[in-house]
Amino acid sequence: MITEALIRQHGLKPDEYERFRKLIGREPTLTELGIVSAMWNEHCSYKSSKKWLRTLPTTGPCVIQGPGENAGVIDIGDGDAIVFKMESHNHPSFIEPYQGAATGVGGILRDVFTMGARPIAALNALRFGAPDHPRTRRLVAGVVAGIGGYGNSFGVPTVGGEVNFHPRYNGNILVNAMAVGLARTDAIFYSKAKGVGLPVVYLGAKTGRDGIHGATMASAAFAGDAEEKRPTVQVGDPFTEKCLLEACLELMASGAVIAIQDMGAAGLTCSAVEMGAKGDLGIELELDRVPCREDGMTAYEMMLSESQERMLMVLRPEKAAEAAAIFGKWGLDFAIVGHTTDDLRFRVRHMGEVEADLPIKELGDQAPEYDRPWLKPRHPAPLDLDDIRPPNDLGHAILMLMGSPDLSSRRWVFEQYDHVIGANTAQLPGGDAAVVRIRHDKGIALSVDVTPRYVEADPFEGSKQAVAECWRNLTAVGALPLAITDNLNFGNPERPEIMGQLVMSLSGIGEACRALAFPVVSGNVSLYNETSGISILPTPTIGGVGLIADLSRMATLPFKREGDAILLIGPHGQHLGQSLYLREIHGREDGPPPPVDLVQEKRHGDFVRRQIGLGVLTAVHDISDGGLVACLCEMALAGNLGCRIDLPRAFGHAELFGEDQARYVATCRPEQVEAIILAAKAAGVPASWIGSVTGNAVAILGLATVPLTQLRSAHEAWFPAFMAGEI
Amino acid sequence: MKSAVIVFPGINRDRDMAMALARFTGRAPQMVWQTETELAPDLDLVVLPGGFSYGDYLRCGAIAARAPVMAAVRDAARRGVKVLGVCNGFQILIEAGLLPGALMRNASLHFVCRRVHLRVENNETFLTRKLGRGDIVQAPVAHGDGNYFAEPATLRALEDEGRVVFRYVDGTNPNGSINDIAGIINRDGNVIGLMPHPENMIEGLHGRTDCAPLFESLVSA
After folding, report:
1. C or N terminus of chain A, fewer CB within 10 Å?
2. Does domain B3-220 have CATH number 3.30.750.24?
3. ipTM over 0.85
């Protein structure tokens, strides 16, 4: 008997249930209700965002596979393909930070190797609540340990990411994990099943009772009851995942695999339905054959379990014995649990009973879709610059900024991640983008970016900025940006103002991607990120991939040599609205974010990339959080060399800390200055000499001088002190 | 030179090590799966690479030390074949009784991945003969359980017999190892274990090439 309470518990709205009941023409069984709740929830169906996701550009000369598969695939030449995607594990990580983050990493790695790629890099974007919130320290410790614990053991280098703090994440942290894999363009594997009467094979770890209804939980807001939801969090086993990776790659090489899908959100249900629906085939499962960890599991539990490290495949029947031998070698479970049919039904049998018999297409790609009402966000009031008095001691302000929670060194975090495994890491964490060698001189650059305070102030401009900053970071190491994955973290879409953020954000992302020829090839939407009515800052995280054809010409950010000239590429700063300086030094978070002129962004970036390719720049760093000064400080600290900056006399804090876009700092030998500035002029790019690399302090003539030793202790101190409970 | 890399489930720096060996020896090493019971008779070097064999779910290296292939590794060591264990490989050699002491959880209780400074304490080994005694090389570490410990008599023997091969210096001991020990050799001089990863610092791409002489030593030995 399906009661109203039961329907509510499954996260289905009355009209959704009614739609389902009409679809099947009878009252569903409990297992069927579980299946539909898993398929039609926000997390799996994208029912609120689909309409707007369709507006994103998803094609381009390098795109092999856009959104809709386990991960996106791009062509990087020579028969090499890069497979990548980012996904959130926000809700589980808030409840149980170690396992939540660990299984987030495990899930995204599986998405990548399901397609036939060996993972070669992992990144993450983490947002925590205010440092002084009582939960924050424990969440940071658990999430970082979980990411390291899984990735290090699995054996993928974690090469980059972001960690930020803001009170709006107090009740709902964000854990976005990105994985990047390398495959051959002629050996990509897809989830679309082909052929009738073929065996559907289960492999990997056994099914347990963990994670039941995880995806449903991820589709609802917390109401202060997060603690009670701990049993819905899965437990990760990186060792099994590593064995699963090796076994899958061996199996794929053997030619046995027709289609493959990992069991992620909504486990067996979602993977089986997706394989069938995409291939226009029915699937029949015999649950008695599913390897179970516990006795007496019901059909309902098996269909909704989110136990980790499991895969579903359609295999060539003549290769079944070979496949079983490979899985035996790696100590993994392997069982034929069903077969494909031609009747487009999703049928589940257990102990002689038909537990579910549903139309597969309607469950999968024809799930309900909403056009939710939305409100256009208000534009923030402009900032009155006269209203902001520069501090008396600019040097002190610089030290405070560089030692602030959002700008201080992330060493405490990235040293817990193995970032050198693979022997291909060409840029360590701390640079503009991570760089990983593919082979010989070819490499890829990777970056994850978003500035949520900008998006909050203006979802359209802020989202354009997220894409532009990612593009700029890839450019700053000399890479040609190719494509992105996005992870859209927002609040409750049933609230028109939140839906408005999502709509405008997607519009901004789309505009920037089109202007920069930077298509979206995969992504994930995480909604309902709110607790007790307080929603997170809108956080559309952008993960980008770029190509470096010649690693010997890669640019890095440390100052290299005493006497090098320092150039500013792009105009001097003036925009203090939503700047980190305004927040950290003046305690204000207001004004509009810096506007992004995409034509200018492209022109400046293309110029910088060309100069890097010519080999005339000795260091390059993009200007973002903290403006020109933070950029110079980071270059000085990384190179352990100071600088002397000579700005026009009338300049003040807006030029030092403004976060205007499309800007870079670069260094070169003094004799190259004239040629570079002339070339910039010819390209229509503002470029000016602003000083030299010299000494052991960051000295801005007439304004501030900060010794490197002081700068370093301020920059390095905050994170370890915070984690030790000393702040 | 003919080398073999032993692979257990959960080992994950096997490819790094194979790349490094191929680079310096000019030929790809044999990759030997843990269920093999024999090694090629003409091997010059057996390497146990880093990783998380069997997930490190028991004591690190304890399960791998009891895998079938280890009887063959022990036998090769007895015959004088050179054996090198790196990171998890070092832990396995200790668990297998081929090297003394224990590797405990890092003093910080955190996994740590960073560059350390190593002083070459003994340059008469098959891994260090291309270096000078007292030379300082940089190398990355990446481990959670590298805190070397030995009881006083063993420690005294190691020190007195010059069997500490590498020592962390310049305040870079990342794990609390006793006497700053980073790598040791057995009494017969043919089995070395160390926590740092020389295979990740051998070419320009790695930022420095400090560990290239270690591989050159292996080849010349």
Report:
1. N
2. no
3. yes
